[in-house]
UniProtKB/TrEMBL annotation:
Keywords for the protein's UniProt record, in alphabetical order: Glycosyltransferase, Metal-binding, Transferase, tRNA processing
Protein's name in the database: tRNA-guanine(15) transglycosylase-like domain-containing protein
GO molecular function, a single term: tRNA-guanosine(34) queuine transglycosylase activity
Segments forming domain tRNA-guanine(15) transglycosylase-like: 54-415
NCBIfam families: Q_tRNA_tgt, tgt_general
Key word Transport present: no
Name of one Pfam family that matches: TGT
Length: 416
């Protein structure tokens, strides 16, 4: 904001907002944020734009190194990649990793991570990190994921009572760790992410379900805009060499997506997140991106939240998407599936691999393909050895990093 607001006044404003604000109240205009000089600690450089599509090759420059784009961002929910340590992930080529603020706030606590010197020191990672706001996890307590919602895999009684209420102030929920009742606000989310110290942080937003009435979705978009503006104000008070991405909302409603993109891209965010409900299937996702991507600024990086299967990536990169995060590739590994170029998807428990004394993936130079055969991995899985899940997960990270590198090469050759 152009003028400083005292903490006492902010608390009073929040108490008033909590009870009397109109759900369609517009968020503060861009002029209220004043001039913002972006430091050289974070910048995005476009190296090449394809002549065939909107695809581009770029570089994110952060305090902890460079991220080549387009790229895959692995999810390390609790400041750890399940089954894979940081040196192995580095060797596989993983340049950017995503950690979840919600889980880290509850265990071990953002203050503990801060006392350790921040996430990088705490988890011994010397490459860039992203953290989310915690909003996705909080609102998933109310209705599960879109997959759960569409397939009714999550029983309502399992979720009831966890998200207690949503007000203008924030979201109040019950901790799954110790049962405490906590309120996540735009300000407290940013403060937690300051304590964690990631290179890229995300403002608090509301995540509505896929099945929602149009007017409820519109109210949600307005609420997210007000929360994101408050998050940005909190961030700009103490930047700490962190970049903040906004999150564009609106579900699959094109008019709301346009409204959200126009408002949020006018504010001094460092990058653009694409979030909210992204459709019931890949076809709806791609249709949404075809509409939305031309509305986003060409000089800022963008990130597609929660999507990182190669089928979606291969269709989204030509539309101009820069980075993708998901736990999908690593989860597949932990559950016994290898992603390979030479054999497609390999379910390692199948007896067909029992006597295949060949590398996992022909032409792959990763640790697993260099050192282990399909027969050995099949044996480990059948014997219930934990090493099996670790090696499959590591290979899938290698696969994703290799595929993203190939996509960048194709863009540079104007073949994509």
């Amino acid at each position: 904001m152009s003028a400083a607001v005292s903490p006492t006044l902010r608390r009073l404003q929040r108490k008033v907002w909590k009870w009397v604000i109109d759900p369609y109240t517009t968020p503060p205009p861009a002029e209220q944020f004043g001039p913002y000089e972006r430091g050289d600690f974070f910048r995005f450089t476009v190296l090449h734009r394809s002549r065939r599509s909107r695809a581009r090759v770029g570089q994110l420059h952060t305090p902890h190194g460079v991220v080549n784009t387009p790229n895959f961002v692995a999810v390390g929910t609790n400041a750890a990649l399940k089954m894979v340590d940081q040196p192995r992930a580095n060797d596989a080529g993983l340049e950017l990793m995503f950690c979840n603020t919600f889980h880290l706030m509850l265990q071990p606590g953002a203050d503990v991570v801060a006392a350790a010197g921040g996430l990088h020191r705490f988890m011994q990672r010397d490459r860039p990190l992203m953290t989310d706001s915690g909003g996705f996890q909080v609102f998933s307590l109310a209705h599960g994921s879109v997959y759960d919602e569409l397939n009714m895999k999550t029983r309502k009684r399992e979720l009831e009572g966890r998200l207690l209420r949503v007000t203008e102030d924030g979201a109040t929920f019950r901790s799954y760790v110790d049962g405490r009742i906590l309120t996540l606000t735009p300000e407290s989310s940013v403060q937690a992410q300051k304590a964690l110290g990631a290179d890229i942080i995300i403002p608090l937003d509301e995540l509505p379900p896929y099945h929602i009435e149009p007017e409820a979705l519109r109210r949600s978009v307005y609420l997210s805009h007000r929360w994101e503006a408050r998050s940005l104000q909190e961030h700009l008070r103490d930047v700490r060499q962190q970049a903040m991405y906004c999150v564009v909302h609106g579900g699959v409603d094109e008019s709301l997506r346009r409204l959200s993109a126009e408002y949020l891209t006018a504010l001094p965010f460092d990058g653009i997140g694409i979030g909210g409900s992204l459709g019931k299937d890949r076809q709806e996702l791609i249709a949404l991106l075809q509409f939305l991507m031309p509305l986003l600024p060409a000089d800022k990086p963008n990130h597609l939240l929660g999507i990182a299967d190669m089928e979606s990536i291969e269709q989204a990169v030509p539309l101009g998407v820069d980075t993708f995060d998901s736990c999908y590739p690593t989860r597949l590994g932990r559950h016994g599936t290898l992603l390979t170029r030479s054999r497609g998807r390999v379910r390692i428990r199948s007896r067909q691999w029992e006597r295949v004394f060949e590398p996992v993936d022909e032409g792959c130079g990763g640790f697993v393909s260099r050192h282990h055969t399909l027969a050995y991995l099949h044996h480990l899985w059948r014997a219930h050895e934990p090493l099996a899940a670790a090696l499959l997960t590591l290979h899938n990270i290698q696969y994703m990093c290799d595929e993203m590198r190939r996509l960048r090469e194709r863009i540079l050759d104007d073949a994509l």
